[in-house]
Design goal:
- By secondary structure, the protein is α+β, with helices and mostly antiparallel strands.
- The protein has 2 domains: 297 residues, DD-peptidase/beta-lactamase superfamily (Beta-lactamase, 3-Layer(aba) Sandwich), CATH 3.40.710.10; 112 residues, 2-Layer Sandwich (Transcription Regulator spoIIAA).
- Helix content is 42%, strand content 18%.
- The protein is built from 15 helices and 13 strands.
- The strands form 3 sheets. Strands 2-1-8-7-6 form a 5-stranded antiparallel beta sheet. A 5-stranded mixed beta sheet has the order 9-10-11-12-13, sandwiched between helices. A 3-stranded antiparallel beta sheet has the order 3-5-4.
- Strand 6 and strand 7 form a beta hairpin.
- Helix 4 crosses helix 8.
- The longest helix has 16 residues.
- It binds glutamic acid (GLU).
- The site of glutamic acid has 10 residues, from loops.
Length: 426
Amino acid sequence: MDPVTDSLNEVHRRLSGLRDGQVADYIPQLATADPDDFGIALVSMAGHTYRAGRTDTPFTVQSVSKPFVYALALSDLGPAEVLRRVGAEPSGNPFNAISLERDTGRPANPMINAGAIATTALVRADGPAERFRRILACLSAFAGRPLDVDEDVYASEAATGDRNRALAYLMHSAGSLRADPEETADTYFRQCSVRVTVVDLAVMAATLANGGRNPVTGVQAVAEPDAVRVLAVMATCGMYDGAGEWLLDVGLPAKSGVSGGLIAASPARFGIAVHSPPLDGSGNPVRAVAALGEMSERFGLHIMHGPGLRATTVTGAERFERDGRAIGVVTAQGILEFTEFEALVHAVGEVTPSAPGWMVVDLTAVTGVLPGPAAGLAAVLDDLADRGHRAAVAAQETFIEAGEGRPRTWEMFRTREEALSWCTRA
Ligand code: GLU
């Protein structure tokens, strides 16, 4: 097991017992979801996927489609025209609110239904079939695989979607929806009924975090400036009427949906997704909100948090023989947050001797280690010991401690030289 998966598993384990929230039932087919389904997936900028819990359950994307269709409208019409037709204000309203500007009927918020329905209509196409085909192709490019529609949820949603039809008619009468209201609502229902897994959502979020380029397939799903606008709208509007508090506490661009999916993007670091159907009073999945809160704190992910200039963290990774002993050395500098930690773990993997040998992690130029990475590094060192290696950490401070109730499996030195000379003596 790798340390990123370990920390996802730990968050998953701690939160699986959380029983708050209600599964959405206003669309009858959504009410059949299993409230115990709970999966977390994370995709890094290097394209690695990490998972915890149930990550294979298919569910419908619902509102989590909104940022991606917004991205498609941006690339079709450009940012100025999209903004002219759909606002970018966190309306502080629930997902199904009649949230339209008084004089123009322009919907305020593209991440709740009214604004999203208007956005769907902006996607360029000759007719509804072609429009939906382009939406599905866009969602699939973000996910990196061909997605399909859950016809049962679509039928259920279409049969009970009068409020969304009403929103479309209201906007049409105000002149802010220039397409046919029935057709537009129907395309929107299909868009909400696209089937995904939590891993698909994590890849989609990672694509936004990676400037629009899917880090798994390498495909540019949307231009970089459009990805930036989508993340900005997610940051301010992505969490229904809980958006403000979310930005305060968790501090990541995110979007949730009524089927219990939630994505969050840590720009230039990773995309993460959680699936857990029970929702809180704002319509956000309870376990997902708690999981992201914990992750943000442990890995210092808040976007307003200033880690200073990001320099290369891993400054050396080598393996050599000294006095007949195979020794791996990884050298790092700066502050170890998530991305730096991931790079360090991979470097350790690369230079670990093939047969049991010695490993030095040189942190003498490291100035800080966040709690998540510290726990992760302890796990990496334990794993080296389990595999018969002997490890040493050189650091100015005790950044890494043994896990609770466990013996420390590595030696500690103040300097690299002391650590290296131990390798040839021990
Ligand atoms: N299909 C849902 C609706 O419009 C999506 C709502 C959501 O996930 O917020 O009612």
